[in-house]
Specification:
It contains 13 helices and no strands. The chain has 302 residues and is mainly α. It has one domain. The radius of gyration is 20 Å and the shape is globular.
Length: 302
C-alpha cells in the first residue's frame, strides 16, 4: 500500500517524466519487435507494431497519467479536445492544405513537375493518395500521437515555460520516437538521420503548438500531422500523395514543409506560438474554448 502511494506521488510530481519512462521502455519495445524478429530470421510488417506502440506506448499512459494527476474530468477534457471539430473552414484549410501544397512545390523544385500527368492521375493522387491516406493515418495513429505529445507533454511543459521552449524540448523526444523506423543500416547513417529528424522536429512541434494554442483542438493537430504523413507515406490502402503523383518515393519532403511553416510561425508570433499567458493557478491542460475566428479579408474596389 505504501509503495503504491509512493508511486502515485512520483507520477503526480513528474507526470511528463513518468510518461517518457513508459514510452521509451514499453512503447519502444513494441516498435522494435519487427527489428528483433528480422535479427532472428522472422519477417514482420512494421505497421501493426507502430500502431500498437502508439496506442499502448503513447495513448494509454497519456490517459492514465492525466487521470492520476488531475482526475477523471481531466481525461474527459482531453478526449473532448481530441474530438473538437467545431472550427472554421480556415483552420481546416491551413491544417490539411498548407503542408501538401508546400511539399508539392518543393517536389517540383527538386524533381520538376510530374511527367505525363492526366486529370484522372491528379484526381487519384488527391483523393486516394492524400485524402484517404490522411483519414487512415489520423484514425490509426496520428490523432493518438498528438493526444500524448501535444495534449500531455507539450501542453504541460508550456504551462511552466515559454511555448517555444516547450516545442524545443518536445521536438527531440518526438524525433526519438521514430528510431525504430531508421535503424538497421550503417551507424553513421542512422545517427545522421536521427540528428536531421531532431533538428526538423523543433519547428514541426512549433507548428503543432501553434495550432493547438489557437484552437485547442487536438483533432485539428492530429489532422495536420496526418496530412503531412499522407504526403510521403502510404498505408495498406495504397501510396501517399507524392509517390502516387511521381511514381516514386521522394522522401520526407513534408518535414521540410513543416520546418518552413514552423519558422514562419515562430517569427510571426515572436515565439509565443499563439499562446496567451494563463492566469495564476490555472490548469496546465486548458479546457476547450471557441476557436478564434478566421481573419477577414477586405478588398477595396477602385
Amino acid at each position: 500500500m505504501r509503495s503504491s502511494a509512493v508511486f502515485v506521488g512520483l507520477v503526480r510530481r513528474r507526470p511528463v517524466t513518468a510518461f517518457l519512462v513508459w514510452f521509451f521502455t514499453v512503447g519502444q519495445l513494441i516498435a522494435f519487435v519487427p527489428l528483433l524478429g528480422a535479427a532472428n530470421g522472422v519477417r514482420l510488417a512494421p505497421e501493426p507494431f507502430t500502431i500498437a506502440s502508439t496506442w499502448v506506448g503513447l495513448l494509454l499512459p497519456a490517459l492514465v497519467i492525466t487521470w492520476m494527476v488531475d482526475g477523471p474530468s481531466a481525461v474527459r477534457g482531453l478526449l473532448r479536445r481530441a474530438t473538437s471539430a467545431r472550427l472554421s473552414l480556415w483552420w481546416y484549410a491551413v491544417a490539411l492544405g498548407l503542408v501538401p501544397l508546400i511539399s508539392l512545390g518543393i517536389a517540383c523544385a527538386l524533381a520538376g513537375p510530374p511527367d505525363d500527368t492526366t486529370a484522372p492521375d491528379l484526381a487519384g493522387a488527391y483523393l486516394l493518395g492524400l485524402l484517404l491516406q490522411t483519414v487512415v493515418h489520423l484514425v490509426t495513429n496520428n490523432l493518438w500521437e498528438e493526444v500524448a505529445w501535444t495534449g500531455l507533454v507539450q501542453a504541460r511543459l508550456q504551462s511552466r515555460m515559454s511555448a517555444l521552449s516547450a516545442a524545443a524540448l518536445t521536438g527531440p523526444m518526438f524525433a526519438l520516437q521514430h528510431t525504430a523506423l531508421v535503424v538497421g543500416g550503417p551507424a553513421v547513417g542512422t545517427v545522421t538521420v536521427l540528428l536531421a529528424l531532431t533538428l526538423l522536429a523543433v519547428p514541426y512541434r512549433a507548428v503543432m503548438g501553434w495550432l493547438y494554442n489557437r484552437t485547442h483542438s487536438l483533432l485539428l493537430v492530429g489532422a495536420a500531422h496526418a496530412a503531412g504523413d499522407a504526403v510521403a507515406a502510404g498505408t495498406v490502402l495504397g501510396d501517399g500523395f507524392l509517390p502516387r503523383l511521381y511514381g516514386q518515393n521522394l522522401g520526407p519532403l513534408h518535414l521540410f514543409a513543416f520546418a518552413a511553416i514552423g519558422l514562419a510561425v515562430v517569427l510571426a508570433t515572436r515565439g509565443r506560438l499563439g499562446r496567451t499567458t494563463p492566469s495564476p493557478g490555472s490548469s496546465p491542460v486548458p479546457e476547450p474554448r471557441e476557436p478564434r475566428p478566421a481573419p477577414q479579408l477586405r478588398c477595396n474596389s477602385g
